[in-house]
């Protein structure tokens, strides 16, 4: 049986899509094929790496990648994590199920270091809940 391919897209592939990819690989294991990419590449955000490490998931080896048309065409699910990616995502083949999770960008958080870290953790935990629910839903469809 073919593993479902999940492609997480965001603006810069630095925070939200990276965390989603990390959670999906961590929680989905060998049952899913997972990638993330951006409309642009902004590099991996060190605060996202720390937030995920604090939750027991290492994304430090991830790279910030541009959307790959070949992966997009093979994808079963394309999940956008910001309005920019939703609006600018290239056209997908008819078989691709597009899903949008509008999430705040933790990289835009302001305040003390503690405030910013809290925002990253809040978004990280929200993404984990969404990924868990999504993986459960697709597993129950097979």
Q: What is the topology?
A:
Layout: E1 5-10, H1 16-28, E2 33-38, H2 46-54, H3 69-74, E3 77-80, H4 83-88, E4 97-100, H5 113-141
Parallel strand pairs: 1-2, 1-3, 3-4
Can you describe this structure?
This protein is of the alpha/beta class and 142 residues long. The protein is globular, with a radius of gyration of 14 Å. The protein contains five helices and four strands. It has one domain: Response regulator (Rossmann fold). Helix 2 packs across helix 5 (113-141). It has a four-stranded parallel sheet with strand order 2-1-3-4.
The number of distinct structural domains comes to 1
| Beta-strand percentage range | 5-15%
Distance between the first and last residues' Cα: 10 Å
In CATH, the topology is named Rossmann fold
Largest sheet: 4 strands, parallel
Rounded average pLDDT: 93
- CATH architecture, by name, is 3-Layer(aba) Sandwich
- Helix count from the secondary structure assignment: 5
| SS-based class | alpha/beta
Overall 3D geometry? globular
Strand and helix order: EHEHHEHEH
Kindly state the percentage of residues in helix. Answer: 40-55%
Q: Low-confidence spans: pLDDT under 50, at least 5 residues?
A: none
Just give the CATH class.
Alpha Beta
CATH superfamily: Response regulator
Query: What is the gyration radius calculated from CA atoms?
Result: 14 Å
What is the spatial order of strands in the main beta sheet? 2-1-3-4
């Amino acid at each position: 049986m073919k593993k479902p391919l999940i492609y997480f897209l965001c603006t810069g592939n630095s925070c939200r899509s990276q965390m989603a990819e990390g959670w999906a690989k961590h929680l989905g294991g060998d049952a899913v094929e997972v990638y993330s990419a951006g409309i642009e590449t902004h590099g991996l955000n060190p605060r996202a790496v720390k937030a995920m490490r604090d939750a027991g998931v290492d994304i430090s080896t991830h790279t910030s990648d541009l959307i790959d048309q070949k992966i997009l065409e093979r994808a079963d699910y394309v999940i956008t994590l910001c309005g920019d990616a939703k609006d600018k995502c290239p056209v997908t083949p008819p078989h691709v199920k597009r899903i949008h999770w509008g999430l705040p960008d933790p990289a835009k958080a302001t305040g003390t270091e503690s405030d910013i870290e809290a925002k990253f953790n809040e978004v990280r935990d929200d993404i984990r809940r969404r990924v868990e629910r999504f993986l459960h839903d697709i597993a129950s469809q097979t």
